[in-house]
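Private note to self, pasted from the team thread so I don't lose it. Backbone tokens:
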């Protein structure tokens, strides 16, 4: 595939330092000094390729770390107390790695009518980058951040509400901008997501807008409803062939290990297993979910080979969890399709919108189709899909809360190993419920946000301190603006039982 060849060559193209980010002081100078590189020699297509590749790989890589543990898709062998203060630098470091470069693509394509579509695509991608950053921290620099050679060294922090409002509007405008002017220069194969396909970019923009609108539903119902009603009949990601995704290169095709599936790399050089998190298996085992053999490698545990490992265990509690499921064939393969957004999620978003009486679509039909799209994505046998849909714990019935739990849980499963999204949805909906060990004692909740990096208190002290005060304190338990659902977090029904599985 041509896009794979582009990935392979990324490291050898000099100008791509703008997209990959500075590795040395010399690169830093090249990246910021307008005397060294001028607009007439900068190719926005190359920068765009680098931003797409590196930001997608970064979001995927985060799932193999603390965000993966918070989302409960992953559990580290060395996992201890997740609530101890730490220096959470990623995704805050995306400013210098990705935001400054996507802003440069936007700037370089803003004046030329022939680059109208390119400009819209860059604006859409900027929203994708930023929504994960603000989801992780809450209030962050936005309007004054990473704006090139004229950058403000100490940017103010914008509220998450302001950022979300702007991202939703930007996605609406960018979607409308696509295809609005004829005779366009396409990114072509430099666009390793959709190869410059305007229709697919429009579907992605609209689907991302729907994700963001649903995310703010409990914080600002009016804002959410406005955008959901406006976008629900627009083109959305509908089939798995339209998924926003990027396939890693096989080891034989790349000399650069950063282009290869990091889970595969881990198992080639490390005997330490990558455990599966407790919550993901806790909701899949009771329904005999046919995706388990694809997602997980079973352990030798005689009673529950697919059980996952809880986090925040004491040393004593870790002993019964030496036999747990590890990453399965999907993730351990030498190539992996990193999902940015899939059709299944879009159907679950639509199902929730209908459930909330924001739209007139069928909650149940959309829920079923969401499950089917997820099963199709992983080539699950049709007979197994039918059995799963008929399982009593899957059929969409019960109280309103029980139905919402099923919609939320199936969406969470469909987003497997998208750590940023899984963690955000767990915080927003309360599902799946999480069992935590008592390494810290009485605290039994997944953190609601990351604390700001230590470096911010050295370089931007007045603004970060003001932001910390505005959100109610720079603490892990402080809720971000959209985290407004009452009664959360829900307590796991077996929280007082050990072992819980």
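Design output:
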């Amino acid at each position: 595939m041509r896009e794979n060849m582009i990935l392979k060559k990324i490291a050898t193209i000099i100008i791509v330092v703008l997209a990959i980010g500075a590795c040395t002081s010399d690169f830093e100078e090249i990246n910021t000094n307008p005397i060294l590189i001028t607009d007439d020699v900068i190719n926005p297509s190359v920068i765009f390729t680098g931003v797409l590749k590196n930001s997608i790989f970064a979001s995927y890589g985060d799932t193999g770390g603390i965000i993966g543990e918070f989302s409960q898709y992953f559990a580290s062998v060395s996992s201890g107390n997740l609530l101890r203060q730490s220096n959470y630098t990623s995704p805050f470091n995306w400013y210098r790695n990705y935001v400054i470069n996507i802003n440069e693509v936007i700037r370089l394509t803003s004046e030329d009518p022939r680059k109208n579509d390119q400009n819209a695509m860059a604006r859409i991608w900027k929203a994708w980058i930023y929504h994960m950053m603000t989801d992780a921290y809450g209030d962050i620099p936005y309007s004054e951040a990473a704006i090139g050679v004229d950058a403000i060294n100490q940017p103010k922090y914008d509220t998450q509400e302001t950022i979300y409002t702007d991202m939703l509007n930007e996605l609406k405008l960018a979607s409308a901008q696509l295809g609005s002017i004829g005779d366009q220069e396409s990114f072509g194969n430099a666009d390793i997501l959709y190869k410059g396909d305007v229709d697919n970019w429009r579907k992605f923009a609209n689907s991302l807008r729907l994700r963001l609108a649903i995310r703010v539903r409990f914080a600002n119902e009016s804002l959410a409803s406005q955008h959901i009603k406006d976008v629900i009949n627009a083109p959305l990601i509908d089939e798995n062939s339209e998924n926003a995704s990027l396939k890693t290169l096989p080891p034989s095709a790349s000399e650069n290990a950063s282009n290869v599936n990091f889970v595969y790399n881990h198992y080639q050089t490390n005997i330490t297993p990558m455990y599966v998190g407790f919550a993901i298996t806790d909701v899949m085992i009771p329904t005999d979910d046919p995706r388990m053999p694809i997602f997980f490698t079973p352990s030798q545990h005689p009673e529950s080979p697919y059980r996952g490992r809880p986090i925040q265990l004491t040393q004593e509690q870790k002993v019964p969890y030496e036999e747990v499921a590890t990453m399965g064939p999907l993730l351990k393969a030498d190539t992996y399709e990193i999902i940015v957004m899939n059709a299944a999620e879009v159907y679950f978003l639509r199902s929730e919108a209908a459930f909330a009486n924001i739209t007139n679509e069928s909650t149940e039909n959309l829920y079923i189709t969401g499950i089917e799209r997820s099963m199709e994505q992983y080539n699950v046998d049709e007979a197994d899909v039918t059995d799963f849909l008929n399982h009593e714990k899957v059929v969409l019935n019960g109280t309103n809360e029980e139905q919402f739990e099923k919609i939320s849980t199936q969406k969470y499963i469909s987003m497997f190993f998208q750590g940023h999204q899984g963690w955000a949805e767990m915080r927003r909906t309360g599902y799946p419920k999480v069992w935590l060990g008592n390494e810290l004692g009485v605290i039994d909740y997944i953190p609601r946000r990351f604390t700001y990096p230590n470096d911010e208190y050295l370089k931007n002290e007045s603004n970060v301190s003001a932001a910390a005060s505005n959100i109610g304190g720079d603490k892990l338990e402080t809720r971000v603006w959209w985290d407004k659902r009452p009664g959360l977090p829900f307590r796991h029904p077996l929280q007082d039982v050990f072992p819980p599985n």
